[in-house]
Specification:
Distance between the termini of chain B: 123 Å
Helix content of chain A: over 70%
Oligomer: heterodimer
Structural class of chain B: alpha+beta
Shape of chain A: globular
Strand content of chain A: under 5%
Helix content of chain B: 25-40%
Chain lengths: ~475, ~625
């Protein structure tokens, strides 16, 4: 079934089309941001849109190079690439240049700047895919789980040490690969629950959360007790607590959602493990939750640096933030997006974009330009474009015969999804402000090049999916 | 190898879709439904800049500029744009200390809601043009700093402070009272004409909208300035003041307490209003030493900030006698040829009411006025009061009161300057309270007849009285505002309304003849200008009597009516009259007759006299 030499026919052109759609959109947005009335040249290499054009050229060349290289190369050299990048990450810690508080850049010859953490993404993706497709590797046993998580967390920790928490968090997206390959779902549910509890714990005062948990506990216990008298008492107490909450804090809906989640979790656990007494389990769960809420707050107040606390506060408790201080970026960003309305102010016509009102606009806040100048229709188009790309990648993943390719594809999907959801989410206040770029759109050479390589390795692997291994 | 977990593909895809939906949902909320954010975009990118209009200028009646606008700069700073700078140089340029510098720059941005690192605030107020010029040359070295021009007042003449008044920064109460027309830092007329005609003088604030980038740099006008509103300058006020006369009056009143009011009788225009001691208007102009000056003036025991012409209330003394004559004539009690035998006092019921020896008999009313015979007016007053019978003193007194009210006495005249006091005319109700109803009789109140007792007039009222006599029976409300430049309308209809007394014109002629005699001789004589006047000595229980003089000149078709009060200076002929005569001559001739040694000597005497030092001895 060898079809060697027919690469072009097997290339997934839809993906390439989506890729170019995003890159060109990105360039137009960067052009708009760096546009000034006095300098209107489309190609001006001294300006951002000009240098982005160079990077686009470089990316196309890199993509072609990736496609030319033999598909076996990636699997064969997956580990060497992975470990070289790990070495680079260690090296950048030792010899790198510190920019804006994080030591994550190599400065070669004074003009070429290079950020290894960008390339660690596809390297880790390769490494993880290679490991998971190995013989005797099954996520059903703890040893494999341990190694798989190790491959993910090694670069994560190194990047965290560089002081670039945003890029480090990206690596958690590989958990999607592990999920697809059979990591127990219970772990994910537990993780989501803990995350939700943390968010709620930071979002609101602790007092109402205690009340909610108490409420949930009473309801659960009363369900388990036969006595009608006790039912009535429990219901009365629950009503009182609920009323107190409603009057005092006025967020009954949130309270119900949280207690509902706790309830569901308990019910789920109870169904699985009948042997443990239901009541005991509820009590233990309650106590753990209460304790955890306090731990989260303690950790937040004592372990995080002030600027990290600020970011979380901006995300979860914007009303407590200084609108001209920590909240300023987010406010400007939301203003720019909101001012676009339904159809936007037109290309090069958005005052906030043109007046450079949003900080970091060509890089992290590029979505503002789309929102302001192209309105909801533009935002909708971009989001749908991304979603199509992500779904396409999962489809590509599932049609692979090689496990390596499938793992790799899920890795790519995970990374892109993480960037997509966090980057756009932060410009509209859904996510904390983590300085990570929007793939293919944001200004920046390392970012564009590494995402291009990441995606085109997948296209290459996919194009040769029918070849026998 | 069988893939047990193929279904998890759907979980992942659902996660992707849910994520995208969440983003879309939130974006739609921002872009389509949340009006709050959509309307705020103009606030951030576009800044409204207030343009302060030039305040109206103030001129005197002859077109001389009295009050002009002087440039003063508020240095503003945007904290987050400030970079490293040479603090020593900066401080030297603005003549401030490094401590001031730090205090003015380091605000409590976290807690103090008035300050933000992003929004410009005032770093240093009231920098003079001279200082600013030096600073401006070096401004490029101090990013974040810029200057805001404010128009403040400058004065060409060191006189007329009480009339012109001053401006000061608005306070919270004034802002609230103006329905927030004013903004913090605005100037508002606080006293004098600046206050009276504030609404005309201040003009209309303009607005300019500029687009600024994220560093606060101006990028250009917003929508080509279509929303901008130009500032409209305040209207220039032409006053009725004669600044030369005003300055001369203030000069003559130097080192004396008292006041002068001069009015053009035919129009009610106030030619000058002196209150002494005074201050130079420049002292309270907006600048950095102003508050010290103000504190000094405020604490001065001689009360230079008090406008004596409007709020000092003196017993009129003998200058009341022409009024009494007029009332007597109108009531038929007196007639021009009526004489009296004065024995140096008026006796009633074994009580003696003092007069003085006269050089010739009081053969008629003119003589009574000339020699200011108390006996004559005690008698006349009693006759008027007792006209309806001795028992009916109330009726008599109320008749007198109603006449006095026609002269604008005992009430505020309604001039265009705040702070006027009404003076005092005691009526029958008052004496009913003091003595009991039906108890008091004409002898009780006899001293009113010679302008003593409870009678109190302000210098403004006395000058108006002189104008009424000069006009032979009418007056216009005295006022300072002649018109606004380039505006043909007179300021207020109120000042065109003629008030008439019910006293026949011929009675005035009789009184005027007497007043002419009264000033015919003596130190206040002006060769070639026949004028009419009356001296008075207002009794002062606290010390030396006040010297008072009331006059108008020339006798026929008078151009100036004047009242002069000099506190604690004894007889009216000693100071008040000579000063009035000098002012009359100055006004009618442009200057006193320098060829006439008597006049020059008199002027010297008046200038030299230091009654304040004398009082303090």
């Amino acid at each position: 079934m060898s079809r060697r030499g027919s690469t072009t026919r097997e290339i997934d052109w839809l993906t390439i089309f989506l890729y170019f759609g995003l890159v060109v959109t990105g360039w137009l947005m960067i052009y708009s941001v760096s546009y000034t009335e006095d300098q209107q040249g489309l190609i001006d290499f001294g300006r951002r849109h000009g240098s982005q054009l160079i990077w686009m050229g470089a990316s196309v060349i890199a993509a072609m190079f990736v496609l030319i290289v033999d598909n076996k190369f990636y699997r064969t050299f997956a580990f060497p690439i992975y470990f070289s990048i790990i070495l680079l990450l260690v090296a950048v810690l030792l010899f790198g240049q510190e920019i804006a508080g994080s030591r994550s850049w190599f400065n070669i010859g004074g003009f070429f700047k290079f950020q290894p953490s960008e390339f660690a993404k596809f390297a880790t993706c390769l490494g993880l895919a290679n490991y998971l497709s190995g013989y005797n590797v099954s996520l059903q046993n703890n040893k494999s789980r341990f190694y798989a998580l190790g491959i993910i967390f090694l670069p994560l920790v190194l990047i965290l040490l560089q002081g670039d928490a945003g890029s480090a968090l990206v690596f958690t997206s590989f958990l999607i690969v592990l999920f697809r390959e059979g990591m127990p779902a219970l772990l994910y549910i537990g993780g989501i629950l803990i995350a939700a509890l943390s968010i709620v714990g930071l979002m609101f005062d602790q007092m109402p959360i205690l009340c909610i948990l108490l409420l949930a506990g009473i309801l659960l216990l009363s369900l388990n007790v036969k006595s009608k008298k006790l039912h009535a008492i429990a219901a009365a107490v629950a009503c009182c607590v609920a009323a107190y909450l409603g009057f005092q804090y006025g967020f009954v809906i949130h309270a119900l959602v949280v207690s509902g989640m706790v309830l569901l979790a308990m019910a789920f656990i109870n169904r699985r493990q009948k042997s443990v007494s239901f009541s005991n389990l509820v009590l233990v769960g309650l106590m753990l939750s209460i304790g955890y809420t306090f731990t989260v707050n303690y950790g937040f107040n004592n372990l995080l640096k002030p600027h990290q606390q600020d970011r979380i506060n901006v995300w979860l408790q914007p009303s407590k933030c200084d609108p001209l201080g920590s909240l300023y970026n987010l406010n400007q960003s939301k203003l720019a997006i909101a001012s676009g309305g339904i159809d936007g102010k037109g290309f090069l016509e958005g005052p906030m974009t043109q007046l450079k009102y949003v900080p970091e606009q060509p890089t992290d806040f590029i979505f503002c330009t789309i929102g302001e100048e192209h309105g909801f229709l533009g935002s909708f188009g971009l989001i749908v474009l991304f979603l199509l790309l992500l779904l396409r990648i999962t489809e590509i993943a599932e049609r692979q015969r090689s496990k390596f390719s499938r793992h790799y594809a899920y890795g790519v999907a995970g990374i892109l999804f993480f960037h997509f959801i966090v980057n756009i989410g932060m410009t509209i206040g859904l996510m904390p402000i983590i300085g990570i770029p929007l793939p293919f759109i944001s200004y920046g050479g390392s970012s564009l090049l590494s995402f291009t390589i990441l995606l085109f390795i997948l296209i290459k692997l996919d194009s040769s999916r029918l070849q026998s291994f | 190898m069988k893939d047990h977990y193929q279904n998890r593909k759907f979980a992942v895809q659902i996660l992707f879709v849910l994520g995208a939906v969440a983003l879309l949902f939130r974006t739609a909320q921002l872009q389509l439904f949340d009006r709050q954010y959509q309307q705020m975009d103009n606030v951030t990118g576009v800044q409204e800049i207030t343009i302060h209009p030039a305040r109206g200028l103030i001129y005197d009646r002859n077109g001389k500029l009295l009050v002009y606008n002087d440039a003063l700069y508020d240095i503003q700073v945007t904290y987050n744009q400030v970079r490293e700078l040479d603090t020593v140089k900066f401080c030297n340029l603005l003549s401030i200390t490094p401590e001031d510098f730090n205090k003015s720059l380091q605000k409590d941005f976290k807690r103090d809601p008035r300050y933000s690192e992003w929004i410009p605030f005032v770093f240093l107020r009231k920098v003079s043009s001279a200082n600013y010029a030096k600073f401006q040359e070096n401004l490029y070295q101090f990013p974040g700093f810029f200057a805001d021009l404010r128009n403040v007042r400058g004065y060409n003449h060191p006189a007329g402070a009480h009339v012109l008044g001053y401006i000061s920064e608005v306070n919270e109460r004034q802002i609230a009272a103006s329905n927030n027309y004013y903004q913090g830092g605005d100037y508002i007329g606080t006293t004098g004409l600046e206050r009276q005609y504030e609404e005309m003088l201040r003009g209309k604030r303009g607005k300019e909208y500029v687009m600024k980038d994220n560093l606060g740099r101006v990028e250009g006008s917003y929508r080509n300035g279509e929303k901008d509103e130009p500032a409209i300058s305040g209207k220039d006020l032409i006053t009725t003041l004669d600044i030369d006369l005003q300055e001369y009056g203030e000069l003559l009143m130097g080192n004396k307490k008292g006041s002068i009011v001069a009015i053009e009788p035919s129009t009610g225009e106030i030619l000058s209003m002196v209150s002494s001691p005074s201050y130079e208007p420049e002292m309270l102009a907006i600048n950095r030493t102003r508050s010290e000056e103000f504190t000094k003036l405020h604490g001065d025991s001689l009360k230079p900030l008090m406008n004596r012409a409007l709020i000092a209330q003196y017993p009129p003394g003998s200058i009341f006698k022409p009024v009494m004559s007029l009332i007597g004539l109108q009531e038929g009690i007196l007639y021009p040829r009526k004489g009296i035998t004065c024995r140096g006092a008026y006796y009633y019921n074994n009580r003696r009411f003092g007069c003085r020896e006269h050089p010739e008999p009081i053969r008629n009313m003119a003589k009574a006025l000339q020699y200011s015979c108390n006996t004559y007016y005690f008698q006349a007053f009693r006759d008027i009061i007792d006209k309806n019978g001795y028992e009916n003193a109330e009726m008599g007194l109320d008749t007198v009161v109603s006449y006095l009210e026609q002269f604008g006495l005992g009430q505020t005249l309604g001039i265009d300057l705040a702070g006027e006091l009404p003076g005092n005319i005691p009526d029958s109700d008052y004496y009913d309270k003091v003595y009991g109803q039906g108890v008091w009789r004409s002898p009780f109140i006899i001293s009113l007849g010679i302008g003593q007792g409870e009678l109190l007039f302000t210098p403004m009222q006395m000058a108006n009285l002189a104008a009424i006599i000069g006009n032979r029976g009418f007056y216009y409300t005295p006022h300072f505002a002649k018109q606004f430049k380039d505006d043909d309308n007179l300021i207020l209809q109120d000042f065109q309304k003629q008030y008439k007394t019910s006293i026949a014109k011929e009675h005035y002629e009789a009184v005027i003849d007497g007043m002419e005699l009264a000033v015919a001789g003596g130190s206040g004589r002006i060769d070639g200008i026949p004028y009419c006047g009356k001296t008075g000595t207002a009794q002062n229980p606290h010390g030396e009597d006040h010297s008072a003089f009331l006059a108008f000149a020339p006798k026929d078709d008078p151009k100036i009516a004047i009242a002069v009060f000099v506190e604690n200076s004894g007889f009216g002929s000693l100071y008040a009259r000579p000063i009035a005569s000098l002012l009359i001559e100055k006004y009618l001739r442009g200057d006193i007759d320098r060829e006439n040694p008597r006049r020059v000597y008199l002027e010297n005497q008046m200038l030299k006299a230091d009654l304040i030092a004398k009082e303090n001895e």
